[in-house]
Amino acid sequence: MLFPTHVVAGYVVGYGRRLPPVPAAAGAALPDLIDKPLAMGGVVGIYQSVGHSALVLAALLPVVLCGRAWLAAWLGWASHLVLDAVHMAVNARPGDAVVLLWPVVVRESSLGLGPVPFFRHYLRTPGILLDVSIWIAFGYVVRRQYAAAGTAS
User: Where is the chain membrane-spanning (predicted)?
Assistant: First the structure.
């Protein structure tokens, strides 16, 4: 799934749960903001490690007790992991969802495909429909927010 799609999906999750949508969007960005630099810097050999681990997310569950913004961020992060797993299943790669079990299960390196070749490949997969669906939901949310703001004036 594309990074911007995760961010808007987090926003939609926050809005839909009546939580602050900006922290939810930030939480949805975290897995990639953590893992991509680690992989590019050679710290780990895969693009989905610490930030994409459901075990790490579960360990962070107590942060939801710190307030609504923290709950929103945690749910945004969770939405990223769920959407990645759904995306893998939609693209007929459900076995790749083992990334959610990092560091207990570590899959082979995924660093062979650069960003531009990945994007070109991705546009030809069924997963792009999932991205488009999320952007449509985001458009609906923004339209509702705009309409609500117009009636509040």
Answer: 54-77, 122-142
